[in-house]
Amino acid sequence: MADSRHIVYVTRDVDRALGATASSLLHIITNATPQASDFAASGGSCSLIEHDFLLSTIDLLKNTQTQQYFAEHKEAKLMVFKPTKQIERFAAENNWELIHPPAELAAQIEGKITGLDWLGELTSLMPYLWHGPCKDLPEVKLPVVAQFNISHTGNGTQFITEQAQLNDFAEKFPERPIRLMNYIDGPTLTSNIVVAPKEIIYGAISYQITGLKPFTDNDFSATIGNDFAFASSLLSEQAKKQYTDIAKQVAEKMRKAEWKGAFGIDCMWSTAEEKMYLLEINAREPASLSFESLLQQSIGDSPTIMDWHIAALLGESPEQAPAIINNGAQLVLRAQTTLPNNIPKGAIIVGSTINGTEYVRFRTEHQFMRTHAILNEQGQAIATAL
After folding, report:
1. Number of domains, the chain
2. Is 305 a member of any domain?
3. Of 75, 97, 246, 354, which residue is most buried, by most CB within 10 angstroms?
4. Is 351 left (phi over 0), alpha (psi -120 to 50) or beta?
């Protein structure tokens, strides 16, 4: 008999779907990359789609192999990394059950402008300054951070040091909504959170590695990795408590909005004020969720946070909480098309070099950061080799 809990995770990047221990429930359909091939060769339940370039999620869904798999597994439920209205429509047209919260709700929460309305009173947790159409941009004390409604991994976020930059926005995009945030000098922290039927699960806090060359050309806001090990030693007990308080307030608001499954928050610690600020909510499976789950798998046999995410989407809660990790880090290469041959030992390289190095990641069980914004010896060795 078909298992009504069987899930098909369709994803452009196989790494997004890794870290589940309940593998019998999960089948992955993804691009045929070296990492995906390694996963399939190790016994992972996986269908690989060969193509000259990496197919997007919607194109993977339209692929004949995917269509055939769902035809043969009619009880299967659909899971993706980030649902969109287009994916929702396509799933509905094919009578596939997409088990995520509505894409419209996710977009409202994630939007830099719409998210302010959704947050309501919790906007006080942010370094919020002003929002409105660009034509009404006020003169403000600089520097500030300017953000349009939609951005990803830092794109769409700009560091403003001169009033002329804001005047330029007003001239070029007079009706376009924009928000201004006070500039905070300090490290960015992030964590994965799962809203399940019976409880809320909080993952470990990680240090968000941002804007370091040569991993990215965007030296202000592009996210290039996470360091769980460094975060555990960086933050004082006071800072950890402030972060936890913010996480709990946001999680309860997500629960009231009938969210289910994983989401993430980004916060920033103001070193001058010794205060934690909420920066944004990632209303979807965060990019670091699978990596945190793989780290959890390496230290025990309890359910991972990926297991909790999957269970929550099915309306279930595992009996055991995931392990809280305090080790592990990853760096993501975003700015280069070829890899050198002299990458130092000790860093595990995962990903694909199809279409350049879009999905190449360097991972360690230890840490890559020495202090805020400065790589340690191992991290610097990788940077030097690149």
Report:
1. 3
2. yes
3. 246
4. left
Tokens of 268: 């920033």
109 vs 255: CA distance, rounded Å: 13
What are the pLDDT tens digits along the chain (386 aa)?
346 689 999 999 999 999 998 655 799 999 998 889 989 999 999 999 998 888 999 999 999 999 999 999 999 999 999 999 999 999 999 999 999 999 999 999 999 999 999 999 999 999 999 999 999 999 999 999 999 987 644 447 889 999 999 999 999 999 999 999 999 999 999 999 999 999 999 999 999 999 898 888 776 668 999 999 999 999 999 999 999 999 999 999 999 999 999 999 999 999 999 999 999 999 999 999 999 999 999 988 899 999 999 999 999 999 999 999 999 999 988 766 566 767 766 667 776 544 444 568 899 999 999 999 999 999 999 999 88
Give the whole-angstrom CA distance, residue 60 versus residue 188. Answer: 34
Pairing of strands 77-79, 97-98: parallel
Q: How far apart are the first and last CA of the chain?
A: 52
- For residues 268 and 324, membership in a common domain is answered with yes
What's the whole-model pTM score?
0.93
